[in-house]
Design goal:
mainly alpha; Cytochrome Bc1 Complex, Chain D, domain 2; two-stranded antiparallel ribbon; 6 strands
Length: 258
């Protein structure tokens, strides 16, 4: 008679599967609570021009508050094919040395007064949230007079920061739906509309958001650039190695067959 009692190994793996499923459910719930669907970013780490534009946009509009403490200016220059002069003149606004990390000039006291806390470092934000989330987040700010800083975000409600790209995007307003009694009578945000134009039209602003997203994706894993460039050579090596292995096998088995 076959023993149907689960072994300790089976129980252990069953427990792991349950934990993974629970984690996925929690993540899905958190994602839905954060604002629902996200847009596809369409970033391309092989597009060096996009990364260069993203670096410039990030340093001009984001780096005053958000550091990249795991990324050095020298590494940016090396990976994005920029000279030391270009990086120090156009991307470094804190007076840091070429070999130092990307830090902020914002002090903890000022951050506490303005935002209630120090803005987070964004070195690994793409690995935590994903590129699609970042891209959608950058496009989802809208004016909200009920918020302390006058801004809110459809993807991340009650965010404690203003829209850093409002000059480029323009002034975006929320489009509200019908009041939801189950949510305390609040009117949900069903859409966003730019009512006062910014420096860029919608298409060019989308590209700017995509460029910043690509740069943050690169910042989360700078080695990805070299890994992708080496991937072709690795595949070619494996193909060549497989060919020689097949020749060697044929040579060994020729004597065996005869």
């Amino acid at each position: 008679m076959t023993n149907k009692t689960p072994t300790s190994f089976q129980r252990r793996w069953a427990g792991r599967l349950v934990a993974v499923a629970a984690g996925l459910l929690v993540s899905a719930s958190a994602w839905a609570a954060a604002g629902g669907d996200v847009e596809h970013a369409g970033t391309d780490l092989s597009d060096q021009a996009s990364l260069q534009r993203g670096a410039q946009l990030y340093m001009n509009y984001c780096s005053a508050c958000h550091s990249l403490k795991y990324l050095r200016y020298s590494r940016i220059a090396e990976d994005l094919d920029l000279s030391e002069e270009e990086v120090m003149n156009n991307l470094n606004f804190t007076g840091a040395k070429f070999g130092e990390q990307v830090q902020v000039s914002l002090t903890a006291d000022h951050a506490e007064d303005w935002f209630g806390k120090m803005p987070p470092d964004l070195s690994l934000i793409s690995r935590v949230r994903g590129s699609d989330w970042i891209y959608t987040y950058l496009k989802s700010f809208y004016l909200d007079e009920n918020q302390p800083l006058g801004w809110n975000n459809k993807l991340f409600p009650n965010v404690s920061m203003p829209n850093p790209l409002w000059e480029l995007q323009g002034l975006q307003h929320a489009v509200y739906g019908e009041a939801d009694e189950a949510a305390g009578g609040e009117r949900p945000v069903v859409g966003l509309e730019v009512k006062t134009a910014g420096q860029l039209d919608a298409e060019n602003f989308d590209q700017a958001a995509r460029d910043i997203t690509a740069f943050l994706e690169y910042a989360g894993e700078p080695a990805a650039l070299k890994r992708q460039s080496m991937g072709v050579w690795v595949i070619l090596f494996l193909v060549l190695f497989t060919f020689f292995a097949w020749l060697l096998k044929s040579e060994y088995w020729r004597d065996v067959k005869h």
